[in-house]
Amino acid sequence: MKRAIDSSENHEENEVSSEKNLIRRNRSRGYESHMQLPCDVLHLNVGGNLTAVLRRTLTSVEGSMLASRFSGRWDDSLEKDRNGNFFIDQPVELFQPMINYLRAKACETALAPPVTSPEFEGEEKRRDFIRMVEYFGMTSGIYPTVMEMCRGELESAQICGHPNLSVMSREWSTFTLGTRGHKRPITSFSVVLGKVERAQIGWVRTGHFVKKLRPGDHKGVGEEKFSFGLDCCRGGLLYEGSFTKLDGLATEKGTVIRCENKGERWLVNGQLVASSIALEETFQLPPDLQQYSLIPAFSGKGDWKVCEVELDPVTSDHKATMSHAHH
C-alpha cells in the first residue's frame, strides 16, 4: 500500500515538475502565462463580425505576419474592441475563407484529397483575397508549392517542404517545383546553391516532360526535350540540348540564382547574366513562352534551397479563358 502511495506521489511530483518546466520554457519565449500559450482559443472581431479560432491555427504559417502578431508575445498591445476581442480590420468574407482553409489543412491526411485554396467567383474579390494573403505573408501557406522528384531514385534524396524548401540528393537527380491545391502558376524563383555537382536550373513543360517518376540514367534540365535552363557547371544556357556559353558566369557554394518571368531574365548574385531579349540572336528560347504551361525544375547532386517563389495572380484556368476570348 505504501509503495502505491509513493508511486502516486512521485507521479504528481513529475507532473508538477513538467508543468514548471513548460511555464519556464514559454516565459523564455516571451509567453507570460498559460493564457498566452499557442493552443489558446482566440476571440476575434473581423470587420465587425465575431469569430473564434485556435491560436495554433492562426499562427500555423511560419514566418507570416499572423504567426508573429498572435504568437502570444504581443497580446497586450494588439488592437481590441471594447469587449476585449482582437480586432482584424479585414472583410470577414475574405478573412474567414483563409481561416477555414487553415483549419482544413490542420486535419489533412495522406489518404484524403488535398485541401484546395479558397476560390471566388468575382475577379475583384479574388484579387482582394490574394492582396490580403500577401499582406499577411501567408502566400506559402494558402497557395503552397511542393518539390517532387521526377528523375532518379526516391531513396537517394531528402526533400524538405516549407518554410525551408530544399533538397539533399546523394545521386544526380531531377526535381520539379509544382503547386498543390490551386492553379496559380509559378512565375519566378530563386535557388541558393549548397555543395552541388552539375547543377542545372530552369523550366520544363508540364504534360510533356513531367509524366511520372523515371529511375536510372537521364538527361538534366535543358538537355531533355521540353526543357531549358542555366547550366552552372559549363556556365551557359541550355535549351533541349543546345548550349549557349555565357562569358564570365561562375557559381559556387552560396551563389544565389534568380529566374524571373518563366526564364525571361536570369540573375546570379543580383547581377543580370541573361535575358530573352538580349540573347534573341544567339539563344532561341521557346517562342512565346507565356503560351506554355511551365514549372521550375532542378537537376544536380548535392544540396540546394529554393526561396522567393512568386506566383501569378491570375490562375491558369482564367488565362486560358482570356486566351480563348481573345482569339
Lay out the secondary structure.
Layout (H helix, E strand, L loop, with lengths): L1 H27 L12 E6 L2 E6 H4 L6 H5 L16 E3 L3 H15 L16 H13 L3 H4 L2 E7 L5 E4 L5 E14 L6 E20 L21 E5 L4 E4 L2 E4 L10 E5 L4 E4 L2 E5 L18 E18 L4 H11 L1
Parallel strand pairs: 1-3
Antiparallel strand pairs: 1-2, 4-6, 5-6, 6-14, 7-8, 7-11, 7-14, 8-9, 9-10, 11-12, 12-13
Kindly describe this structure.
- The chain has 327 residues and is an alpha+beta fold.
- It has seven helices and 14 strands.
- It has helices at residues 2-28, 55-58, 65-69, 92-106, 123-135, 139-142, 316-326, and strands spanning 41-46, 49-54, 86-88, 145-151, 157-160, 166-179, 186-205, 227-231, 236-239, 242-245, 256-260, 265-268, 271-275, 294-311.
- Strands 4, 5, 6, 7, 8, 9, 10, 11, 12, 13 and 14 form an eleven-stranded antiparallel β-sheet that branches. Strands 2-1-3 form a three-stranded mixed β-sheet.
- A hairpin with a 5-residue loop joins strand 5 (157-160) and strand 6 (166-179).
- The model is unreliable at 1-9, 26-36 and 319-327 (pLDDT under 50).
